[in-house]
């Protein structure tokens, strides 16, 4: 936690407050988020609870975020037993994308075609 910036701590605290409200079946609103943050001794800028409540007030949105893969975290490595023969397994082939050649650039204002612009 010491390595997080003030903004990162605020985002984390607000995110955890939303998850706690969702898990408890409570309404996710700016007021509820603020109340939970105050009860846990967390101080955040006033806009964090508002933004999070606007985007996550619907429980279905929170459930979708929880269940969807992705995010910025790195995936854990395969377990020792599962990865025992993994080195000789299939290697992913890089997809080769051939780019089409763009047409020659032209002057959008007609400067190169002898026009009267």
Task: List the topology elements.
Elements: H1 6-23, H2 30-39, H3 47-56, H4 59-67
Helix pairs in contact: 1-2, 1-3, 2-3
For the biggest sheet, the summary is: none
Mean pLDDT: 75
Structural class: mainly alpha
Provide the succession of SSEs: HHHH
Query: How far apart lie the N and C ends?
Result: 62 Å
Helical content, roughly?
40-55%
Indicate the radius of gyration in whole angstroms.
Answer: 25 Å
Number of strands: 0
% residues in beta strands? under 5%
Parts with pLDDT < 50 across at least 5 consecutive residues: 85-96
Q: What does the overall shape look like?
A: globular
Task: Tell me the number of helical segments per DSSP (H or I, 4 or more residues long).
Answer: 4
Oligomeric state of shown chains: single chain
What does the model show?
The protein is mainly α and 117 residues long. It has helices at residues 6-23, 30-39, 47-56, 59-67. Helix 1 packs across helix 3 (47-56). The longest helix has 18 residues, at 6-23. It starts with 5 loop residues before the first helix and ends in a 50-residue tail after the last helix. Mean pLDDT is 75; it is low at 85-96.
């Amino acid at each position: 936690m010491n390595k997080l910036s003030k903004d990162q701590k605020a985002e984390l605290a607000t995110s955890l407050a939303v998850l706690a409200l969702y898990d408890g079946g409570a309404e996710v609103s700016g007021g509820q988020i603020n109340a939970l943050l105050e009860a846990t001794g967390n101080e955040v800028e006033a806009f964090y609870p508002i933004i999070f409540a606007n985007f996550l007030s619907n429980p279905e949105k929170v459930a979708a975020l929880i269940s969807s893969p992705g995010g910025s975290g790195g995936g854990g490595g395969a377990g020792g037993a599962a990865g025992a023969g993994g080195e000789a397994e299939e290697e992913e082939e890089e997809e080769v994308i051939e780019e089409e050649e763009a047409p020659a650039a032209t002057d959008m204002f007609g400067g190169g075609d002898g026009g009267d612009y």
